[in-house]
Amino acid sequence: MLENTISNTPTYSTLKVEIKNAIAHIQLNRPDSLNSMITAFWKELPECVRHIDAEASARVIIISSLGKHFSAGMDLSVFANMGSSFEGEPARRAERSRRMVLALQDSFNALEEIRIPVLAAVQGGAIGGAVDMICACDSRYCTEDAFFTIKETQLGMTADVGTLQRLPHLLAHGLVRELTYTGRKMKSDEALRHGFVNQVFSDQEQMLEGVFAIAQQIAMNSPMAVAGSKEMLNYTRDHSVQDSLNYMATWQSGMLQLPDVHEAMAAGQEKRLPQFEELHPKTD
């Protein structure tokens, strides 16, 4: 397992990134602005997670934030920039608008597409675009004061960056529709009761301690096995059971090799931590 902080991680204007002991910690880093998602954020987040994945520099990613609230969602400046797209010939204007929405969606699609599990650690408010983001994460954890709201409806628009597509796979449809149509807050106890979050912690310090402990457990396992599990879970969400079983069989025919299995068994017998080879970096 990687033991030292990776030094070649790029720097970002909206994110603070540290990678240590095979765990990448990405923090939203605009606390004075409630970590609202400015234009730079939508470019930097996918660039950051894809860089970590491409370099195979971590086995788990944790996304948290600095400040009182996790994120107030899309910044007003982004909405203002969108206003300029409502000019010109209607068909070309619509085509440009569509590409803009697809680009925003891609920022959070990246969280699903990378090989590495992504854990969200939420304190305070997760509003609008922040809900879109954490719905694309593998697991969610929060503090007692956390709340989640699909704010777009109250702003006169339909949420368009992933919440309405992913949340119905995480919560009962009736509840998703209620949260969407009303824009009301879902507090931490309700989120836990309905399985949206895995665990609720008393405060952010306790939450990060707990989430890092979970990340460490993930990082001790074969990164090949974990990556395969993420691939299968994402695939089965969008396909039939039979299609998913067929894909699983095809995956195993190539990806199931014995070195990691032998190492896991030997480590168990010898009562030591297993040592697995990292995933190969991606090449262009």
From TrEMBL:
SUPFAM superfamilies: ClpP/crotonase (SSF52096). NCBIfam families: PRK06142.1 (NF004794). Belongs to the enoyl-CoA hydratase/isomerase family. It comes from Glaciecola petra. It holds the Pfam family ECH_1. InterPro entries: ClpP/crotonase-like_dom_sf (IPR029045), Ech1-like (IPR045002), Enoyl-CoA_hydra/iso (IPR001753), Enoyl-CoA_hydra_C (IPR014748). It comes from the Bacteria. This is Crotonase/enoyl-CoA hydratase family protein.
